[in-house]
Amino acid sequence: MLKKCYSGTFGDIATYKRGNMEAGGFEYLLQEFPQEFECVKPLCRTVRGVLFPHGKEGLTVGTPQDPKRLYDPILKVYDDAISLIETEQACYSK
C-alpha cells in the first residue's frame, strides 16, 4: 500500500497521498500499523490534524506563513504523547 507514496508520476503520488490524508483514507492507512504501534495511533491522528486541517473546502494543504502555527502544535503533540507513554510505562512497572 505504501509503495504508491513514492512511485509513479508526481501527480499520481500527490493524488494518492492526499487521499491517504483524508479521514477515511488515513484510518485505512493506520490499519497497516503493526499491533505494537497501536499506542501511537492517537499521536498520528493528532499530527495529521495539525498538518492537514479540514476546512470548509475540505482538506487543507500547504505551509502556513508563520512556522510557529505549524511547529509549536506539533512539538506539543509529541511532548504530550511522550508524557502519556511514560505515565503508562510507570503504571505497568509497578
Task: Give a written overview of the molecule.
The chain has 94 residues and is mainly alpha-helical. The chain has one domain. Helices cover 60% and strands 4% of the residues. It contains four helices and two strands; from the N terminus they run αααββα. The protein has helices at residues 10-21, 23-30, 41-51, 68-92; strands at residues 54-55, 58-59. A two-stranded antiparallel sheet has the order 1-2. Helix 3 packs antiparallel against helix 4 (68-92). It is globular. The N and C termini lie far apart (40 Å).
Principal-axes geometry comes out as globular
Structural class: mainly alpha
> What topology, given as strand order, has the largest sheet?
1-2
| Major sheet details | 2 strands, antiparallel
End-to-end C-alpha gap: 40 Å
Mean of residue pLDDT values = 77
Order of helices and strands: HHHEEH
Alpha-carbon Rg, integer: 16 Å
Count of extended strands: 2
Oligomeric state as shown: single chain
Helix content: 55-70%
Low-confidence stretches: none
What are the main properties of this structure?
single chain; 94 residues; two-stranded antiparallel ribbon
